[in-house]
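Input sequence (298 aa), recorded before submission:
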Amino acid sequence: MDDYMVLRMIGEGSFGRALLVQHESSNQMFAMKEIRLPKSFSNTQNSRKEAVLLAKMKHPNIVAFKESFEAEGHLYIVMEYCDGGDLMQKIKQQKGKLFPEDMILNWFTQMCLGVNHIHKKRVLHRDIKSKNIFLTQNGKVKLGDFGSARLLSNPMAFACTYVGTPYYVPPEIWENLPYNNKSDIWSLGCILYELCTLKHPFQANSWKNLILKVCQGCISPLPSHYSYELQFLVKQMFKRNPSHRPSATTLLSRGIVARLVQKCLPPEIIMEYGEEVLEEIKNSKHNTPRKKTRGRTR
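Predicted structure, token format:
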């Protein structure tokens, strides 16, 4: 801790505290996560996994890892500080005023880019929610908080342990079924719905009723002024059968999201997605869903 000066607390949770710190020699600001280390060895190893996973992630839409260290029974993870707060704060600040569609899609595209990166590395985030999506003053969106993340043994593997925040948990987890990266897609859909309506897609007066609503998968439609393409996108992400939900790569290679990818990433990062995806992006206009209209009968 000698290299950092604590400026203030910026968050608190079951893990411990999040602090805004300043590096003594460079004067650069960072976010520091202070995690109380459990007494048991196995639980301590689980706490260390977040730092190990975060260190593997290098992407403009993922909160950057600087270093981690242990002192006085705590694990400290030093990360990039996002000076624009988080999406949950941003949604609350709207006070009922809806976001414009182009802003929603720009943020959502950046989220998809971050999620696609971790899925390619066989990592499930497992706690994607508006509070874990961070913003910078220059318009960048970054996925953070890998405290619940899990590294899969292979791309086809499934996880079974319940984790997550109830409002964002997909039906397969509530039904005690094995799940894969499509669970993150459901959670991403919940955030997209939140950005469009400023409220959770599933709301109830008890956890039992909330779980029931999630498992039924019925959501109220988006406000009518949003485009058909955006409404179609939301519906695809809320498919009850996980295999019917699009992957992050599919989201990035088709329709309205595909057309924004090159605006959201520097050229050297775009190449990460390979020729196949870039070719699909070029042809995305052929894959864009169109609203069906009835012809007149004579």
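Checked by second reader. The first strand starts at residue 4 and ends at 13.
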